[in-house]
What does this fold into?
Amino acid sequence: MFKRIAFTVNGKAYNFEVDVRESLLDVLRSHLGFTGAKQGCGVGECGACSVLIDGVPYDTCIYLAVWADGKDIKTIEGVAEKNGELSDVQKAFVEEGAVQCGFCTPGLVLTTTALKESGKDYTREELKRELSGHLCRCTGYQSILKAAEKSLEGHVCTCVDSPHYKGK
Amino acid sequence: MAYTVVGKSVTRVDAVAKVTGKAKYTDDFSERDMLVGKILHSPYAHAIVKSIDVSKAKALPGVEAVLTYKDLPEIRYATAMPGVIEAIATDEVDVAELKYGTAGHPFSLDESHRDKEDRYILTQKARFVGDNIAAVVATDALIASKALKLIEVEYEVLEALTSTDAALKEGAPLIHDDCERNILASGGYAIGNLEEALKESDHVIEGEYETSIVQHCHMENQVSHAYVDSDRRIVIMTSTQIPHIVRRIVAQSLGISWGRVRVIKPYVGGGFGNKQDVCIEPLNVAMSLAVGGRPVKLELSREEAMIDTRTRHAFKFKIKTGINNDGKINGIHITAVSNTGAYASHGHSIASSGGGKFRYLYPTKALKYDPITVYTNLPVAGAMRGYGTPQIFFAFESHIEDIAKKLKMDPIEIRKKNLVEVGHVDLLSKNKIMSCSIRECIDKGRELIKWDAKKALYKEQTGDKRRGLGMACFSYASGTYPVALELAGARIVMNQDGSVQLQLGATEIGQGSDTVFAQMVAEVLGIPMYMVHVISTQDTDITPFDTGSYASRQTYVSGMAVEKAALEVKEKVLAFANRMTDIPAHLLDIKDQFVVFKDSGEQVIALEVVAMQSYYDRVNAQPITSDVSNNARINAIPYGVTFAEVEVDIKTGKIKILEIFNVHDSGKIVNPLLAEGQVHGGVSMAIGYALSEQLLFDEKTGKPLNNNLLDYKLPTIMDTPEIGAAFVEKEDPTGPFGVKSLGEPPIVSPAPAIRNAVFDATDVAFNRIPMNPQRVFEKFKETGLI
It folds into this structure.
């Protein structure tokens, strides 16, 4: 069974029919060519397929394409400026050495982007919790955490029990 | 030595591609009308297919082919596309039986040194839950899955041997007919007179240690696609560490000539040894041949990948050590039982490699190693980061801690008393220790964790939460010499602007090899990083021959080829400049994109001008290139240590790592930021190994219980403490730029260090990992702590 849906991906409008059984990940990767979203498990365990749907990170492997009707989607391909300049989050991931095999990277960059765009403040533990839906086997998360904290500069807790406490 | 680019934390050459989603992995490529392949896995750990009926599956609309063991090796003739498959069939190599070995080792001309050939593409006898019985090719994944359910198989179920004890017991059924008692191989080594060494020791201390089956869990599962091209050649794109070896093994498995096969490896989403094996490619090619050479994709789900690729061998060790009152070890006897699962894959090489690399740490008068590798009806064990060393070092570094405790000796002093010295020549491999900074590593780690102060603080604890400190050392190797061939290839082409393309046989799989190779080239050629264009994709039609990424061999072994290729280009540039300027080449050097006088640094001519002339000079034009191969008949031994501080919650059995430091002697560090990343990842994987990870199986049936990322406890960011990485940099005289290996070493010593810290905190010795809360709790109950 097919259903017509309309959504935007990285600002561009799409309007087409999808098989109602298809996941958003299938549609993004196979039909629209947004291969930056990766499949690591297919059942919502690893976070590699994350994209932002109306600004919120979702595992697209367990999100039906038909649910995306009317939504505003951002994939990793839409994070950098149109002229190719990297976003602050992308720059932080590059500079901190947070990238190894790169398979988990798009999802982590997107979730970090959502945290940054939320404008909220985070403690290190809160930040870790927010990122814990993303599995990475290469980095031990050390540089990923650093990159995320760098991305959120000014919004990471510097109170007295924080590792970012500057002292008096 | 002072370098300009080597030793600097330059940005990864692929970082931008990876943060923008532009880096393409195997599944990001597609062919038009690509079909989908799926595998029918055995539900039984040990069974024989009595009958198999595929008629209903074949009749399902959308199903293009159904394959069983009966179609192989006949697949070559089965449904040939006229003119295509015949051409392949006429190339067929005459082999009696199409059994093949899957391990990603270089081919050996010496037959006795080859891996065991014990596998068919599809089998009539299932040897583990997940074994490949049949396969379907269909127009889409849903139809393929449906077709699998329509295949009717009648099995004769045999006793499932789910442990090495069961496999070794008298009268156990044979998993492979040619292996008595299910022993794949045995044999280690003996140095000196063990009996005498033990007799003359003041103490002889024994211990037993055990490690579990774990899985690599690289984020990208095994995936490939295959087709026959217009040139009648088989093309496979696959996520592999070893493209040239995949090419050979696919050809061997199908009995066709090797030149008929072309393997392409794009970006790879992690491997950790699991892609140093040929798991899915032969079946993928068979699927394509069954549909007349049309493109077929074969992608494993996470649940499939966790049981039907490779795992880490579980080991059981018994160790007996003779030691004097002064802490000097006279003799060590290690016996080991390695569980290789249903097929050989890397098999006994794992036990051999662990035992081999262990010899470089504590040379003793007498050392005897007796390993056996046993088949069981469990998933196939193969290569995984560390290759046998995490197992043996967990055992021995736990054992030496037990000895220290028993003899009331300081755990650091007892190790120092027995450590290797520079100049030591290993009696068996003949490898000579040319550099060794293990003592400095220990001193640095001791300081970083504030060992002495905390040790004093944590004496006599009695509360519910107790803290402790532990450490453990390791030795490793850089590549496999002298056990296997260490051939590497590199090719450099200089462009008109003086920039270069660098082509490599060594594969980037996330570890950062492309970047460190580019740094080496930039260093030699006096050009900035942005002028070195690394061709990250390997294509066996184009790429220089190199056996691939494994054994922590890239920076050391392939680095030698890269340095050699760059030096040849440099020599050619200077020779060309000599022809242009008449200044003798030996007076010249290249610096900052200029040919300069070596002594004064005075600029002679821009590199770009030389490069342009090399292309377009009407008389002398000859573009500057190099294409080299390097056979590294040498090895360098890296060392390191882990220091860990834990807090044990006695009531819940939960172990929390408060601090952990890995200090490495890996020679010169080419890129500190990337090197730290290797250490972080290795330590994190080792923390999982020590505390949470284990593939579980039903003891009776061999059915996997947790082959997914929810139930298999891979550390998340919440579970991972801050990891300290430090280096003692002393250049090794044998390595390019003084390097030694670093990729695998970080995983070797954290597990025993954590175990020793728990021992320190609680006085309870855990001789089996993982130390998950349930096991810790049970052991505390058993020992009366709760």
Observations:
- The mean pLDDT of chain A is 96.
